[in-house]
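Q: What residues go here?
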């Protein structure tokens, strides 16, 4: 029996499971198998993106699972090349079509570049029509988040940003809380970089609780009230990453992990001009 995953109530009343399954870098021809395994393990919240080029396989797994639609929470994202009011609306339709769905639970602006204000107007319309139950953003630093909030009617329900023990986003989270935006972590396990899985503080805590480092890190994020979407292609790790609701870290243990913050991205600096220029050139068949 898979553990029951709690939900958080977003700023528009929608319930979001606090633990989901990410499919970044899952190849198109493996997505159906991987997501079928994830649903069998007990995940009900899936995170994909047009840019991952695997929405079709994710959709096939959803369809064959037989799980009632209202038990699932499905997120996808709008890529930069489709930014803009009319282009975003058309990209949303294509994503839904590939996923084989008639609505999304969460639609995100994937990157804060291009005409994302136009995209946001289109997404507000999709939200009002009920085709996207919630709308949000990703990779928005606090300045861009506040700008978007203050110049539109609907406040993003979620901001999905890189967050893990080496890049903790405490100040960002404070702004999100103040503005009613749910913090969601991408790369919760640091994408396995920088020897996260063998870090002495994390292995020490894992031993103390009879858990794995991955479970300690996910638990630490959940106790910070951050939604997590770890990815693994391996069924045993999918199950392991779900099994994090039966223990808790003490305040002292939380502080030990807090001390590991470097304050910098270990993946991709969204404010680096070269990175911004590069991402703007990346195009997908969306
Ligand atoms: P992650 O932090 O979830 O790390 C994934 C890697 O960790 C796996 O490839 C695997 O090698 C390893 N791993 C997973 N579980 C493990 C375990 N129990 N023990 C040991 N190793 C384990 O990285 P991610 O996939 O980049 O991030 C999670 C999800 O976030 C993505 O799949 C995607 O849905 C989303 N994401 C969003 C953005 C964005 O720009 N919005 C960027 C990156 C990722």
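A:
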């Amino acid at each position: 029996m898979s553990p029951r995953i709690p939900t958080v109530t977003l700023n528009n009343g929608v319930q979001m499971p606090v633990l989901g399954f990410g499919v970044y870098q899952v190849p198109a021809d493996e997505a159906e198998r991987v997501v079928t395994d994830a649903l069998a393990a007990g995940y009900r919240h899936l995170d994909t993106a047009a840019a991952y080029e695997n929405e079709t396989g994710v959709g096939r797994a959803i369809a064959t699972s037989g799980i009632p639609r209202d038990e699932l929470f499905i997120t996808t994202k709008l890529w930069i090349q489709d930014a803009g009011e009319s282009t975003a609306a058309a990209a949303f339709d294509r994503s839904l079509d590939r996923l084989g769905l008639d609505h999304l639970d969460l639609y995100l602006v994937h990157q804060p570049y291009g005409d994302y204000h136009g995209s946001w107007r289109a997404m507000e319309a999709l939200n009002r029509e009920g085709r996207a139950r919630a709308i949000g953003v990703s990779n928005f630093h606090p300045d861009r988040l506040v700008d978007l909030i203050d110049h539109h009617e609907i406040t993003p329900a979620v901001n999905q940003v890189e967050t893990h023990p080496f890049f903790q986003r405490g100040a960002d989270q404070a702004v999100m809380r103040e503005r009613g935006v749910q913090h969601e972590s991408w790369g919760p396990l640091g994408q396995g970089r920088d020897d996260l899985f063998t870090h002495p503080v994390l292995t020490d805590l894992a031993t103390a609780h009879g858990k794995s480092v991955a479970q300690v890190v996910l638990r630490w994020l959940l106790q910070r009230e951050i939604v997590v979407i770890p990815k693994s292609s391996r069924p045993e790790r999918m199950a392991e990453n779900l099994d994090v609701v039966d223990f808790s870290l003490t305040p002292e243990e939380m502080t030990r992990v807090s001390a590991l913050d470097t304050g910098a991205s270990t993946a991709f600096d969204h404010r680096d001009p070269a990175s911004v220029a590069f991402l703007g050139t990346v195009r997908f068949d969306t």
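A: Context that may help when evaluating the design: The pocket of nicotinamide-adenine-dinucleotide is lined by residues 22-24, 47, 110, 138-139, 160, 186-192, 197, 212, 214, 229-232, 237, 240-241 (CB under 6 Å). The longest strand covers residues 132-138.
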